[in-house]
Design goal:
This protein is mainly alpha-helical and 251 residues long. 68% of the residues lie in helices and 0% in strands.
């Protein structure tokens, strides 16, 4: 006989433990950023590379929705795209991230062009989009459950950036402030959906592995930033060079 699935409570505890052990709030670059230890160029490199992830989220969600037959699930998921792309009444996360780019002194058109990305940033984010496009719906939703751990990191990021960087204010940090309101809604739906649909031990394992994959995607992005712009400071060919593409640059 196949193994019995874990209880709902035990399976949720397993998912939360993945975050406790593997979420990228434990990464050295994260601690450097939030403590005020990053140079202006290191902050700029983070803004440039993280933008690729932010801009890819609605594409990931659109790929997911294209595979969903259930109108109720599509309706529930649609707000995630609107949260990032914006609406007539909501600026959207992508625009808010470009406001952060302005604040740290970057040419927003350069950031929006997605040029100068670290290769590992592009590979990791593209892998996540492909994962959501190609894997089961359960695995795709489970991968989004890093949102379980996001409010804590957003709150810490707001506090750390405000305390340590001159560019930080309510306008430049509006992306994170808005995610404090948006993420709980998304994660409440996603967690319930995963707990409802992971009704066998095999499905629970697949969901857990999907969440591990997503934590790896986030960790890999910070690994790349640390290696390129902190130590050993080996910037790959074609990646953004500090001191370039700033607001003061003249074409």
């Amino acid at each position: 006989m196949p193994p019995a699935p874990a209880s709902r409570a035990d399976f949720e505890a397993r998912l939360r433990q993945i975050g406790a052990e593997r979420y990228h709030d434990k990464h050295p670059f994260h601690h450097l950023l939030h403590s005020g230890g990053c140079t202006p160029a290191q902050v700029q490199a983070w803004v440039i590379n993280r933008f690729y992830y932010q801009a890819s989220i609605p594409m990931k969600d659109a790929a997911f929705m294209s595979r969903v037959d259930d109108p109720a699930l599509r309706r529930a998921w649609r707000s995630r795209i609107e949260d990032h792309d914006g609406t007539d009444t909501n600026e959207g996360g992508i625009a808010r991230w470009l406001r952060l780019a302005d604040a740290v002194g970057l040419d927003r058109d350069y950031v929006a062009s997605k040029a100068g990305l670290l290769p590992a940033t592009r590979f990791a984010v593209d892998a996540y989009v492909r994962f959501v496009r190609d894997k089961s719906l359960l695995e795709a939703v489970a991968a989004s459950l890093t949102e379980l751990f996001a409010p804590k990191i957003h709150a810490a990021r707001i506090e750390g950036l405000l305390a340590n960087y001159d560019f930080a204010d309510d306008s430049s940090l509006s992306y994170f402030q808005n995610r404090l309101k948006e993420a709980p809604k998304d994660v409440a739906f996603g967690l319930k959906w995963v707990l409802d649909h992971a009704d066998t031990a095999e499905k629970q394992e697949a969901a857990a592995q999907a969440l591990i994959f997503k934590t790896d995607v986030l960790w890999a992005q910070l690994d790349a930033l640390h290696a390129a712009y902190v130590t050993p400071a080996a910037i790959p060919p074609g990646a953004w060079q500090p001191g370039t593409h700033l607001i003061r640059d003249v074409a």
